[in-house]
Amino acid sequence: MMQAGAVNPFPCPSPLERVLLAELVRVAKVCYDRGWSFGTAGNFSLRGQDGLIWQSPSGLNKGDLNPAFFIPVDLATAQVVGPLKVVPSLEMPVHLGAYRSVPEALCVVHTHPPNLVAASRSGQDLLFSGDEMQKALGSGDHLQTLRLPVLTNVTPSEMSKMAENTGAAIVPGVPMVVLAAHGVYAWGRTPLEALAYIEAAEFLCQTYAPQKN
Ligand SMILES: [Zn+2]
Predict the structure, then answer these.
(1) Burial per residue of 98-115, b for 16 or more beta-carbon CB atoms within 10 angstroms, e otherwise
(2) Ligand 1 mean position to 181 CA, how many Å?
(3) Which CATH number fits domain 15-207: 3.40.225.10, 2.120.10.10, 3.40.50.300, 3.40.50.1820?
(4) Which region holds residue 77: left if phi is over 0, alpha if psi is between -120 and 50, else beta?
């Protein structure tokens, strides 16, 4: 459900949003320290009040973020709010697609876990069955089939269409999408919850051996 456009031209994070932004910074550091966000890879955001999201900036080392670096963006229009000469992450459209499609998504974490990236290279959705860890990603039990949707990666000039593509690809109850040979975008109520989903998916990709006839 899309929210109304932002109305405050000079937004500040609320006290709760500041706490969650600090947690998001810690999660970004964890991703960097694990080698999942080397270079300036990875991007991170939080759903704020009044139709805003707080988006990490483009081009910075994600192991060295600060809550004050996050940029207010109107969720409906994708425009930066306020007189800021800063650029949010170029991959922000994927975040917007998740927030617009999943009302309970309060933050989005994007990083490049190597086993998951390798497993996604074919561009086919990732299917798991028979594995206990599936339960961490929405399967009621290990006998169900878990499907992680994999989208085709795009060039920066094509990125704007990813808000719509992401919304169309989301599997109800599964808190992530994967871009083929690129990385994962996971959402949750808190940054640590989104990180836990990514850890579960990375573990599945690291350990899963499809059954062969
Ligand atoms: Zn990326």
Answers:
(1) bbbbbeebbbbbbbbbee
(2) 10
(3) 3.40.225.10
(4) alpha
Identify residues whose C-beta is under 5 A from ligand 1, the ion.
Answer: 183
Q: Which two tokens stand for residue 53?
A: 């999201």
- Quote the ligand 1 centre to 50 CA distance (angstroms): 27
Q: pTM of the prediction?
A: 0.92
- CA 76 to each of CA 5, 14, 29, 80: distance values in angstroms, whole numbers, following the listed order: 6, 20, 29, 11
Of 66, 71, 2, 61, the residue nearest 33 (C-alpha) = 61
How distant, in Å, are the alpha carbons of 110, 135, 192, 199, 201 from that of 126?
Answer: 17, 15, 23, 15, 10
Taking the chain (213 residues) in runs of 10, the rounded mean pLDDT of each run is 59 95 98 93 95 94 94 95 86 97 97 96 94 91 92 92 95 97 97 98 86 41
Positions of E strands within the chain? 43-47, 52-55, 71-74, 107-111, 126-129, 145-148, 150-151, 176-179, 183-188
> Is 45 within 8 Å of 23 (Cβ atoms)?
no
